[in-house]
Amino acid sequence: MANVAKARGGYSAADGPLTLRYLNSPATSTSDAQDLLALIGTSDLLLAAYGDRYVTRPAFLEAGQVQGLESDLDRLFTLLTSLPRRLFGGDLRALGRAAGMTPYQIDAVERTAEDRPLSLGRADVYAEGDGFRLLEFNIVSSVGGLEIPELNRVLLRHPALAQFIAETGLGYVDTMARVAEVIKAECERGDAGSTPVVVITDTPGNFAPFEERFQFMAKIWSGMGLDGIACPLDRFEERSGRIFADGRKVDVVYRYFLMEDLLDADSQRLIEPVLRAAEKGNVGLISRMDAELYGSKAMLALLSDEASRSAFTAEEAELIDRLLPWTRMLREGPSTADSVPVDLMRYAQASQSALVLKPSLMHGGIGVVPGWTVSPQRWQECLRTCDGGPYVLQRRVRPVTESFPVAGKPGAVEPLALNWGVFLVRGTYAGAFVRGTADPDVGVVSRATGARFGCCFHEPATASR
């Protein structure tokens, strides 16, 4: 069970100074959080993106936390993108095979890879008692949560919250604007016009459920000096090696299709023209296919595995041990746990309640099996079925809880465990959002398991205590 101990007037022991100040401020302690939820319901964008489930206050980050997350994630990104050189003699294909990719997926990586991979992604982290621990690093353009600044803007219409934010000098990052800067930089390398055309796309089956959300994103970027379009891949045309969407020449394809889509023949047929154009430099592709290689959970296993430790400096090893939970590719044979030699399969069976089984290349919690949520028989079956495949074992991270007001009960609070989604764009902190649950043992904190969404305000980098 996560830390739900109470302290300081009935609040969670992990509540930070900003949270306590917010909960105890006269303006917020006497108002009903239901007012905030009602305000959120007035935004069509938020309803399209996140539905109607929200936490009852913003999350807060202190200046030191922002600086620490930015530094740690940027350094981790550098380590991940150095793995081909450090562990495979520069052989990108060998790294792809280690991640469990198929030959065609590896081809897609090689054809579109650049010497300096784009730093754009979202780290999913939990807060433990001594700091943040990383569950996965989604280094890809198709991450969810980019529109979360709309929630910041909507909440600031609430007088009490706006007063608190003003008094404390807090702010937030417009993540969509940061990504727009990346898109414009990509356009500068080609022959884009004064208003570059960027198309948000996915396979037809995956595009349809999110069309309204994608249209909102295209509209937002159209207000930032871009010409945004949202359409599925089957509305693309290839003319003389260039990509057209709805009859307009595309400068940048902002992809939501994923590496796993290359396993499907129909999706592969639709994606192939985009890969050809990107390979020839006729269209920008954000992000390129190598992003998902570096963002796969197999890369975390390579970093975590003590067999790779000689490839890293002492300072790099300290970062790995502090930020990453124990992670291993699921393979029969010898391994280590806490520097002790173990047989990996026997260790996995004996440590079921402390481990999570994850596919290395899937997304959104698909295929994840938290050991504590299944029977021993089911756990052993999963281990046997996935042994040797593209799967990792990761040690469970137990998040501390934070206090959130209870809607309809002014002054009352409840503890929620938070999954923090922290954005990194070109090496800098680019905003964050949270998904909260009252059940820390749920396994995967996501919309599918009933999580509630929230935005984040942070102290400026110059703030100190």
The name CATH uses for the topology of the domain at 89-116 and 175-293 is Rossmann fold
Assembly annotation:
single chain
Number of continuous helical runs: 19
User: What's the CATH first level of the domain at 89-116 and 175-293?
Assistant: Alpha Beta
For the termini, the CA-CA separation is: 32 Å
Mean pLDDT: 92
- Count of DSSP E strands? 22
Q: What percentage of amino acids are in beta strands?
A: 15-25%
The CATH architecture assignment of the domain at 89-116 and 175-293 turns out to be: 3-Layer(aba) Sandwich
Which geometry do the CA atoms define? globular
- List the uncertain runs: 1-8
The biggest sheet, with number of strands, parallel, antiparallel or mixed sense and barrel status, is: 7 strands, mixed
Helix content: 25-40%
Helical/strand content category: alpha+beta
- Cα-based radius of gyration, to the nearest Å: 22 Å
Describe the structure.
The protein is an alpha+beta fold. It contains 19 helices and 22 strands. Among the domains are: 89-116 and 175-293, Rossmann fold (3-Layer(aba) Sandwich), CATH 3.40.50; 326-395, Dna Ligase, domain 1. The protein is globular, with a radius of gyration of 22 Å.
Q: How would you summarize what this structure contains?
A:
With 465 residues, the protein is of the alpha+beta class.
SSE blueprint and pairings:
Blueprint: E1 6-7, E2 11-12, H1 17-24, H2 26-29, H3 33-40, H4 44-50, E3 59-61, H5 63-81, H6 83-88, H7 92-98, H8 103-112, E4 120-128, E5 131-138, H9 149-155, H10 159-168, H11 175-187, E6 197-201, H12 204-207, H13 211-222, E7 227-230, E8 236-239, E9 242-245, E10 248-249, E11 252-255, H14 265-280, E12 284-286, H15 290-294, H16 297-304, H17 314-323, E13 327-329, E14 334-337, E15 340-343, H18 344-350, E16 355-359, E17 369-370, H19 376-386, E18 391-395, E19 401-405, E20 413-425, E21 428-437, E22 452-458
Parallel strand pairs: 3-22, 6-7, 6-11, 11-12
Antiparallel strand pairs: 1-2, 4-5, 4-20, 8-9, 9-10, 13-18, 14-15, 16-17, 16-18, 19-20, 20-21, 21-22
Helix pairs in contact: 5-17, 7-8
